[in-house]
Amino acid sequence: MIGSNRVGRSWLAAACVMAALAGSQAATAQEAWIGSWGASPAFPVGPELSNATIRQLVRLSAGGTKVRLRFSNETGTQPLVIGAVRIARPGNAPGSIDPASGKVVTFGGEAAITVPPGAPVVSDPVEITVAALDTLAVSLYLPRWTGPSVVHPLSMQTAWISIAGDSTQATALPDAAPLEARFFLSRVEVAAEGGTLVTLGDSITDGYGSGVDANKRWPDLLAERLAKAGGPAVGVVNSGISGNRVLHDLPEAMFGPSALSRVDRDVLSVPGARWVVIMEGINDIGHSSSAGLTEQEVTADEIIGGLKQIVARAHGGGLKAYCATLTPFEGTVFAHYYSA
């Protein structure tokens, strides 16, 4: 019996190794995916919605032969019920689509899905060929009450919301109200050979002051340069959140989870990620004094230590990290933000 057990264990171990190799080979044979667009979720500080359709425009940085979407309820407090999602080419009027170009987005083959608090969801691949710098309209129907919406607050892009049921196929949403925020949509990924560059930062990366619907954030301009250069596809995923800090959260505000707490979510989880540009730290210095948060005052060494942690985790994920220096901020309009 002892001998037969050993033989059995050896057979089982060999079978496990062969299964692992087969799985590895299958993974190698699978399509390659890269990130093409991103907006990092902050906290659930958006409006409460029900029976609503939201239409959002995204400009892709890299093209591919298929598209899939990632929606986030990672900071949400209520289940997110998604009733329907469609993607389409934009129409001629603001907030409209070309209905002939519409594609249904599914999740495990189903049109609807419930996303629990603390989780994201990735859609099935959608058969649509897109080019670098193409714009897609994403229409999302929310049949159930959301609680406070999980948003990316400073979108620098107009979204349209209609409280009139499932209007995902409508050319123009009925009685739509424009809002500047990203709702639940956190990433667009494309099937392509290449790599992804992630930009992790605060309002400078997020695009504050760059103009609404202008696509003039510095990661947008970088994407344009990379697309013009040609060669293998390089997606640029913007993981900036205005007001964000390396070391601290401020849940009641819209500054989002700290950079340290969102590295896995916003950098390492991005498919094809090979590079990360890190530009954070000014708000660690300024927020504590401008908001009277003396208990959150930090030293230069503490900020540097946090940045080193981000770099170490990026290296652990196989990424090359680039750290930008902090820009001057004397004379800022924010009271008590700067001191000698």
Automatic annotation (TrEMBL):
Signal sequence residues: 1-29
Q: Which domain of life is it from?
A: Bacteria
Which InterPro entries does the protein's record reference? GDSL_Rv0518-like, SGNH_hydro, SGNH_hydro_sf
- Keywords from the named record: Signal
Q: What organism does the UniProt record list as the source?
A: Inquilinus ginsengisoli
Q: Does the keyword Signal apply?
A: yes
Mind telling me which Pfam families this protein's record contains? Lipase_GDSL_2 (PF13472)
Q: What is this protein called?
A: SGNH hydrolase-type esterase domain-containing protein
Q: Give every SGNH hydrolase-type esterase domain span.
A: 200-329
